[in-house]
């Protein structure tokens, strides 16, 4: 029998009209194409992502720098002053506007010494919220004052403190610091020290420094001593006689005479003293109308 074409099984012997048997080659090709497409897509996405990141970084780097004040306020790592102290306070576990505490007080004291006047003043204002009735707060204030050699700096800190009723034992260390202000060579500091003393010391012992202030050679100190007399509870006879002398002998219309006349209103005056007071007040009024 004659063999039919294609019976040998060889591909070249297959009839042109014979059906094509499927093989695995087309499936493998489709899978490879799919993998290539996915790889291309991932590469395109990564390229786009990093390109956008580069453009964003270039935008930030090309932006003009913030002014120094904004850098200080917006970046707690930039500059000095109160933002720095806020970071220190937060590191200690406190909030700057929260309950007064020793770390917060130290932070405010440190930043009040800032070279930037606005920051320094803001921190001085913060000191008023720390009550000296708290032993830790009081001891922190006193330790800072004792370690500060500059009398002008001590005066600024004391001026920022809120006067608080204290026992004589609690008040004694602060009175030592107030006394140091009165011994300054600067009349401005001596004058401020007398006013601060009158705000804190309500005892009869204040009369002696007040008398010394009324006899000071600097008119600025004398004026502050008169103000301190009015602020205090001191109404001794020696203070009264000194005020009467200042009221009668100071030039009419002067600040010293006006302040002395005003302070004498809080004193009990006999007939002679009241006449001196009236003459001084009348001359003062006449001078003011001219």
Question: Would you mind describing this structure in some detail?
Answer:
The N and C termini lie far apart (156 Å). Helix content is 66%, strand content 0%. It is mainly alpha-helical and 290 residues long. The chain has helices at residues 25-62, 68-74, 82-91, 102-111, 117-127, 135-146, 151-160, 168-182, 187-200, 207-214, 219-231, 237-249, 255-264, 271-289. 27% of the residues are buried. The model is unreliable at 1-16 and 55-96 (pLDDT under 50).
Which descriptors apply to this entry?
290 residues, mainly alpha, disordered N terminus
Task: Sum this structure up briefly.
The protein has helices at residues 25-62, 68-74, 82-91, 102-111, 117-127, 135-146, 151-160, 168-182, 187-200, 207-214, 219-231, 237-249, 255-264, 271-289. The chain is mostly helical and 290 residues long.
Question: In terms of topology, how is this protein built?
Answer:
Layout: H1 25-62, H2 68-74, H3 82-91, H4 102-111, H5 117-127, H6 135-146, H7 151-160, H8 168-182, H9 187-200, H10 207-214, H11 219-231, H12 237-249, H13 255-264, H14 271-289
Helix pairs in contact: 3-4, 4-5, 4-6, 7-8, 7-9, 8-9, 9-11, 10-11, 10-12, 11-13, 12-13, 13-14
